[in-house]
Structures are given as C-alpha cells and as structure tokens.
What we know:
Largest sheet: none
Structural class: mainly alpha
Mean pLDDT: 96
Amino acid sequence: MLPYRLKQARERMGLAQQKLGILAGIDEATASARMNQYERGVHTPDFELVCRLAVILQVPACYFYIQEDELADIVQHWYDSHHNGG
Length: 86
C-alpha cells in the first residue's frame, strides 16, 4: 500500500485520522495513532482493513496500490462515475 494515497483519500473526504480509524473498526483509543502510522508508512494495514478503508473513503481498493498519479486519477474517476452516479 502507498501511504500517501491513504492520506490523499482521507483528506479528500475531509476526515480526521481518528474518525477514519473508528469508522474502519479500529479501537477509539488507538485509531488516530494507527492511522498516522499507516499514512507515514511505519506499518501497513492488512488487505481486509484496506478494503474497509476503501469503502469509507469511496475509492476502489486498488487505488491504494497504484504508483502512477495519472492512472490513480483515471481509476478514481471511473470509480466515481460507476458508484456515485457519475
């Protein structure tokens, strides 16, 4: 997982790290710290958590793994048009 993609998607939705973590099922006491570690690349979430984050952040799970910015944008636009009424 590319940590900066997680941060981009979270900021795009206007969520704080703690709020995102809680929505993803992480304990409230550790949600902020864990999300911060994921965004800094200190730790990597397992694929199950990545999928939960993707649903909350309204991105396809693959978005977090795409290295090329232009391709990530294309995938996001495709996802938006197919899931949010485009």
